[in-house]
Automatic annotation (TrEMBL), chain A:
<keyword id="KW-0472">Membrane</keyword>
<feature type="transmembrane region" description="Helical">
    <location>
        <begin position="28"/>
        <end position="48"/>
    </location>
</feature>
<keyword id="KW-0812">Transmembrane</keyword>
<feature type="transmembrane region" description="Helical">
    <location>
        <begin position="151"/>
        <end position="171"/>
    </location>
</feature>
<dbReference type="InterPro" id="IPR047817">
    <property type="entry name" value="ABC2_TM_bact-type"/>
</dbReference>
<keyword id="KW-1133">Transmembrane helix</keyword>
<dbReference type="InterPro" id="IPR000412">
    <property type="entry name" value="ABC_2_transport"/>
</dbReference>
<feature type="transmembrane region" description="Helical">
    <location>
        <begin position="242"/>
        <end position="263"/>
    </location>
</feature>
<feature type="domain" description="ABC transmembrane type-2">
    <location>
        <begin position="28"/>
        <end position="264"/>
    </location>
</feature>
UniProtKB/TrEMBL annotation, chain B:
<keyword id="KW-0547">Nucleotide-binding</keyword>
<dbReference type="InterPro" id="IPR003439">
    <property type="entry name" value="ABC_transporter-like_ATP-bd"/>
</dbReference>
<protein>
    <submittedName>
        <fullName>ABC transporter ATP-binding protein</fullName>
    </submittedName>
</protein>
<keyword id="KW-0813">Transport</keyword>
<dbReference type="InterPro" id="IPR050763">
    <property type="entry name" value="ABC_transporter_ATP-binding"/>
</dbReference>
<keyword id="KW-0046">Antibiotic resistance</keyword>
<feature type="domain" description="ABC transporter">
    <location>
        <begin position="6"/>
        <end position="248"/>
    </location>
</feature>
<dbReference type="GO" id="GO:0005524">
    <property type="term" value="F:ATP binding"/>
</dbReference>
<dbReference type="InterPro" id="IPR003593">
    <property type="entry name" value="AAA+_ATPase"/>
</dbReference>
Length: 277, 329
């Protein structure tokens, strides 16, 4: 057990370095890490602001009446979205390893396949999201809009973002690494993720069908937990159903990743398509 | 773990093929058809055959990248399918022309990365990386991003990667393909040294002189089937491969022409005048031929002897000139 944990930690370290080098190859990366999300946040804010302050909207959604709280709502949405979408991007990049041949080298090694997928996602997440996380934290503190039940709820917030995101990353890596349609999946998971997960709008404002679809995306649950803990002062008890669902969803995503990897590798070993020339 | 070597028994590999799109009829293509191989520790074993013979497929099965359709591969008594993870710790693969490394990492970082995946002990990893960088002549470029490497440098780094786990068995698929001559020579020396230290090596190469220089035992395959096995010398003998004697004479008087006919030599004009008598023979017939020419009153201005090559033996086998399978020692 200790050996397995140590080996896994080394795979995590290796993937972190790889992701760091991939993402920090040029200084313009700061645009994708910070400037681009902030621009999206600003666009969303100034689009919503006139609508949200209308009397009818404020009656249904009191938070929207306060510009700072609206901005905090959207900032948490942008941050959580950045967590999850960075993993979509990372998985898309990972799928290229099948054509460059490096995937074959990874599968030639004794490293655990699921560990590799998780480490690759976690590495991308840490490299991608730290700057925006710092910015959002500073902004929320600056707005004075935080309403947190107790200090350790910050830990709950981190876990509610991190664990489902890493499980989501492992699932996507497993899916895209054996798929010929990675570009299609990339497109499918971009805008719809914004919409169905309630990044820009409160979950209750979405149509029922969209709410049901959104429930299967871990970003939705993460957003409910993060916003509840940071902006509504929800306690652990109040968030327990959401956190329970997130735990179940994360476990299902990891289990699905393990199955996809097993089936995908066996298929690639049978057909010789671990490498696409 | 006993070093019992790699044992391949009755190996078959078929690939599913769809000839016409997603919904076309599914057929199968046989790449390996009943191979038996033994790759003991401490020996360089060659695997030869023409393009499409099944060499790369065989190597990829041994590397666990492909799963055999039937048959078994055992590495130090570990089954390559059931115990794949343990097998992967004991092997590595280097493919010629391979440039599969991460271009946004330095050479040193690439080796560190793969060292982590192979769980090479931290204490050993740093020293091994330095040793391998030196071995492939990349010490000066160790901390340069690979995207700035030349093709040859990248390929040398890929070779170092294949040695990062100090494999008990090394699978080499055209390892010197595209390498500059000095680097290829150095790699051959490294391979010979590894084998002398106990590493079992399986080598495929189109450079048959390389195989002849390195391999103690060679398997020849065609269409995935076993054709012959033995040492290079045994294969040449068994296939009756012919050496070549070329004698340049200034003139061909009738008595020398009669000698040429008697020995079965062909006559062609020489560039500087005179003629070249060419004799293909299983033995070294240079002495008797030269003596007969002189004895017939002729003169000799040049004598060239070319020994039978492994290439001749392989061509004889794969052309069907010699019926297989030919199994020697």
């Amino acid at each position: 057990m200790i050996d397995a944990t140590r080996s896994a930690a080394r795979v995590f370290a290796a993937e972190s370095l790889k992701q760091h080098r991939r993402l920090f190859g040029q200084p313009l990366v700061v645009f994708s890490m910070l400037v681009w999300p902030i621009l999206q946040l600003a666009t969303t804010y100034y689009t919503l602001r006139p609508v949200a302050t209308a009397s009818d909207a404020a009656a249904h959604w009191p938070l929207a009446a306060d510009p700072h709280r609206l901005l905090a709502f959207l900032a948490t949405g942008t941050l959580a979205y950045a967590f999850f979408f960075s993993l979509v991007q990372s998985a898309w990049h990972f799928s290229f390893e099948r054509t460059t041949g490096t995937l074959e080298l990874l599968f030639l090694s004794p490293a655990g396949r699921l560990t590799l997928m998780i480490a690759n996602g976690a590495g991308a997440l840490l490299q991608n999201a730290w700057l925006l996380t710092c910015f959002t934290t500073a902004a929320l503190l600056g707005f004075g809009t935080l309403s947190v039940a107790s200090w350790w709820m910050y830990g709950v917030v981190v876990l509610a973002l991190l664990i489902p995101a890493v499980a989501w990353g492992a699932f996507l890596n497993s899916l895209l690494v054996f798929s010929r349609d990675s570009a299609f999946l990339y497109t499918v998971l971009d805008e719809p993720l914004w919409f169905v997960s309630g990044v820009r709008l409160p979950h209750f404002a979405l149509p029922a069908v969209v709410q049901v679809v959104g429930a299967v995306f871990p970003l939705t649950g993460s957003l409910i937990a993060v916003r509840g803990a940071l902006l509504e002062g929800d306690t652990l008890g109040a968030l327990a159903p959401t956190l329970g669902w997130l735990t179940l969803l994360s476990a299902l995503l990891l289990a699905a990743a393990a199955v996809i990897l097993r089936v995908g590798e066996a298929h690639a070993q049978r057909t010789g398509r671990l490498r696409l020339a | 773990m006993p070093d019992t070597g790699i044992e391949v028994r009755d190996l078959h590999k078929e690939f599913p093929v769809r000839d016409r799109g997603l919904f076309g009829p599914r057929t199968t293509k046989t790449a390996v058809n009943g191979l038996d191989l033994d790759i003991p520790a401490g020996r360089i074993t060659g695997l030869l055959g023409l393009n499409g013979a099944g060499k790369t497929t065989t190597i990829k099965i041994l590397a666990t990248l492909l799963r055999p359709t039937s048959g078994t591969v055992r590495v130090d008594d570990l089954d390559s399918v059931a115990d794949a993870r343990a097998v992967r710790r004991r092997i590595n693969l280097i493919a010629g022309g391979e440039r599969m490394v991460y271009t946004r990492m330095t050479g040193r970082e690439n080796l560190w990365y793969f060292g982590q995946l192979y769980d090479v002990p931290k204490r050993e990893l740093r020293a091994r990386i330095d040793e391998l960088l030196s071995l492939v002549g990349l010490t000066q470029a160790a901390d340069t991003m690979v995207e700035r490497y030349s093709r040859g440098m990248t390929q040398r780094l890929a070779i170092a990667r294949g040695l990062i786990n100090d494999p008990a068995y090394l699978l080499l698929d055209e390892p010197t393909l595209g390498l500059d001559a000095p680097i290829a020579r150095d790699l051959r020396r490294v391979v010979a040294r590894l084998a002398a230290e106990g590493t079992g090596v399986l080598l495929t190469s189109h450079y048959l002189a390389e195989v002849e220089e390195l391999c103690a035992h060679v398997y020849v395959i065609a269409d995935g089937r076993h054709l012959a096995a033995g040492s290079p010398a045994e294969l040449k003998t068994a296939t009756g491969s012919l050496g070549t004697v070329r004698v340049t004479v200034p003139q061909v008087p009738p008595a020398v022409a009669e000698v040429a006919t008697r020995f079965g030599a062909t006559r062609t004009p020489a560039d500087g005048g005179g003629e070249i008598l060419t004799l293909r023979s299983p033995d070294h017939m240079a002495g008797p031929l030269a003596a007969a020419i002189v004895g017939a009153g002729g003169a000799i201005t040049a004598l060239e002897i070319k020994e039978a090559s492994l290439e001749d033996a392989i061509l004889a086998l794969t052309d069907g000139t010699v019926p297989g399978p030919v199994v020697l020692a």
